[in-house]
Amino acid sequence: MAFLATALAGPLIGVRQLDAASGAQIRLANARSDLDALLRIQLAEDTSLRGYMSTHDPAFLEDQPAKSAFDQQAEALKARLREASIPSGVSTVEDMRRQHASWEADVDQPLRRNPGARDAYARQSRGKFITDRMSADADTLRNELAAASDRVERALRKRINATVAISAGIVTLFAIIALWYAIGRATAIARLAQGQILVDALQRTLRVGGQRPARTQMGFAYASATREALIGGDVLDAWRASPDLGWFLIADASGKGIDAARHAAFAQYAIRALAADADDPADVVNRFNRLFLDTFDDPSVFVVLFLGAFDARTQTMRYASAGHATAYVRRGTLIEWLPPTGALIGIDRNEAYETETVPLRLGDVVLLATDGLGEARSTDGEMLGEERVAALLRDAPSDPQALCDLLVASADAYSGGVQDDLAIIALRIVQDDESAATSFSPIGGRSNA
Question: For the structural domain made of 216-434, what CATH number should be given?
């Protein structure tokens, strides 16, 4: 009887443990989703105000969330955290709430009433500081949620191992019960794994692999116009050729969806391969242009790209640009445009691309974006345009990831939703001990999130 009880209890315990772990992971995922939504509200409000202050276009203010939205989302997030047994996160949310109230009272309302006030720049600077603090709080809370998820997974693994160990000695005597247990266990694991695979796939879609160049910080953002599949023809990549030399690439393949993604993938991996034995961007782009024409015979297929190489020893960037227009260097408050050095890829086999050299100093920021940024259109059909992009860049945060988030949110607010594939790279020159790993910003607020 003891063996029978053990054989019956083992599967039941295992299934319950799996179901409990699945429920815990779902609660943690819901809390992460609510946290992202809370931060998006602040970024949307801050973006609308920055857009208005930079361009004096009241269309930016029309897209601000309702004033009560932040408090409502904060309450929902606190409920999620209590449900997920993360009470320490509640105080973090309260701190974000206080900072948001301070931002509204000290930054948003005064600048709306008097955008031309003498202290307007100081208030905008305070707004940046407050938003950066809120982003830091959100990162802290995300780390807590990730740690909790890891604890659930480790505990689940230990419990499963213990259950299997107890049941192993009597499997041969109770084959039918063991089979039932295996089916129940496999079903529960499959439910848990299916949800996790979906989340991981979406996260991988919005993440750039590779390594940032030495002595740089980098930010990335991506949004696809193909909302259902979350795929498009834009490429973001960065990798190191040596401890001092790093490459970074942004490219936009013509078309939408699967075909554009196929051409984009070809561009990414072909350029990586060609750059492996080269140090001159123009040489890589020239060879890639010929390879692209040899591979694709459709005259409607082309690629716009910017390939940069940063040498940390000389603090110099060399680049070749195949028709890529949205490329800037920000030096303090001065914005310098980086012009193309050749035509689009896939047009002319004999096109001769050139390499331009750009010296960079500590704190300088290089911004690259595909045409989904400058060509974002308002409801009246007016494009955001390179001048507005440059104005937003001039007043944007110095942190590369915050800069990318701001520009995506600005395009989204201006156009009411990303209408074309949009990719952004921001690179900032820093001291060695300031360098940080690359990251990829999820695009939130709509179905492309």
Answer: 3.60.40.10
